[in-house]
What we know:
Largest sheet: 6 strands, parallel
CATH superfamily of the largest domain: NAD(P)-binding Rossmann-like Domain
Strand order of the largest sheet: 2-1-3-4-5-10
Structural class: alpha/beta
Amino acid sequence: MTKILVKGALGKMGMRIIALAHADKAFHVVETIDAADVMIDFSHPDVTLSNLELAAKAKKGAVVGTTGHTEEQRREIEKIAHHLPVVFSPNMSVGVNVMWKIIEEAAKALGAEFKVHVSEIHHLRKLDRPSGTAKEITRILADTLKIQSNKIPIQSIREGEVVGIHKTVFESPGEFLEILHNAKSRDTFASGALRAARWVIGKPNGLYSMRDVLGI
């Protein structure tokens, strides 16, 4: 049984992680870091680092699904990962991580002859814009196509109760290719976080992604 401590337990994602864990006999939710095997952070970018410091002190692994970190905060997360194993991903969905791999392969094959643009739609309460997932798409495209990420247009839309829709379009004068992921439920991300939590236990200290968890 994997014992998990959830930071951000009262948030929408935290509550879904706890609900899925309670429904799965492979997990047990605890309230202190000392009692946990692993910590899952879906709190706030300003407190992620202190949560990781807590986990490092207790010599526990961690999963971070919180988004909206500044570049400085991301660098600090990379530094503290020298002291504990951390799975850090802007999106814990298995489908999204497969999508990132597909986008990378598409960019390699299509090359600079195709113009590319990204769009994302989320619910009205989502604070970061563009989403962390969209930023990761542009990072992958920029690295693959050898261009600056700010040269890739991103359209961000906030409406209703949309969980998350991400679309990448490659277009030439004669054709276009559309790659789309539609998250129908937050349970998609919650189940991915639980999968990462089981995987990270016992791993060497360092920074990992969901692609490491999935082996892609």
